[in-house]
Amino acid sequence: MPLRTPPRTAEPRTADGAGTADGTAAAADGTKITGARSGNRRHRRRRGIAALAVAAALVAGTGGWAAGSEQTAVTGPAPGAAAWRADHTLGRPLPDPATATPTTVARFFAGLTEPQRHRLADRHPLTVGTLDGAPVQLRYRANARALRAERARQDARANDPSRPAEDRARARALAARYTALLSPGRQILFFDPRGRGQVAEVYGDLEAARHTAVVVPGSDIDLTTFDRERDRYGTPTGMAVSLQARLTADAPHVPTAVIAWAGYTTPVGLGPDAATGRLAEAGAPRLARLLTGLAATGAPAPALLCHSYGSVVCGLAAPRAGRAAVGDVILFGSPGARTERAADLHAGGHVWAARDASDWIADIPNVELLGLGHGADPTDPAFGARRVAADRAEGHTGYLVPGTDSLAGFAAIVLGRYADVR
């Protein structure tokens, strides 16, 4: 959690605002104030200077705060929750999407017939599609229906001549995105159209998988950039596809699955949002629910691959989900995880860290002060994480590029082949 700003206290200064000649402070009556109070003043100054250093480093690395804009975090149940709560067609209350645990949700759906499940998914697609603990195949069905409904809504907006041209163009772009997500074979595990849009997709057979992984991305990822072609291996889709391909190559007879998860509001650019934990604090409960929901449906505890600001989300979500729901945790290209020790993540497996020599993230100060910064460097031996080689990775988004040693190491971790990690 971010450190809170200490309560303001009167500065130990003389009546004219000066200190004494020997460096101690003085009260208004001339009495010297030495020891702890003078030391506190120096401590506050050091903290302020350090906080400014974090801000200065981010500004220098991004061309200024204008590189990022403040985002409004999307939280809570997806649209349609009120209609879901009011549905009494089964003769009993449906699990509240805001308060029911994934275990409760899983138990509820286990007590329904298949036709009953399908009717609920068809009536309340956005709710069922985002309900952690619901059967995986049912969520795929619900999200496909939700995407078709949203596409129809955007198509109507795009063809409405009363709307401004800019609105119609945006609607056409959104409709095209929904069409792409509806392509045959895509398995959409989560879809929320609010804000910039959030989505999660599964690669592989999640229900049969013996080893699973969740890719948690950093800044600038949303519905429109989730699977972009530019800087492909900086997207959750690119990273997940590459990892799943490597898992299949390394263990062709072992069923595996990788989830590309963009289920939180990410920072845009590297401005103030990227320097604080505000968006991570909003997104961590969603990631924790995903993890406990996977456990409730019988999936093995996944390895978390946490890239850049995604490390901050993982650092807050993993302890919340608990050891039973989290396997190994891999922090790469990480500014920190809002903790000083790997053990504080409470991973069921090991905690790992990777950073290549050309990653600019190394220039960010590893402090957490007055709400700025994200704490200790995960690659520092004092943090306690196991190191993964990234000698052949390049830049901030090259860790899962095919052929890199970091990708090979990550795949070995997901498969539990720790002896193969270099």
TrEMBL record:
InterPro entries reported in the protein's UniProt record: AB_hydrolase_fold, DUF1023
Chain positions covered by the region annotation Disordered: 1-44, 147-170
Keyword Hydrolase belongs to the record: yes
Residue stretches making up the DUF1023 domain: 192-368
Protein name per the record: Alpha/beta hydrolase family protein
Domain of life: Bacteria
Keywords associated with the record: Hydrolase, Membrane, Transmembrane, Transmembrane helix
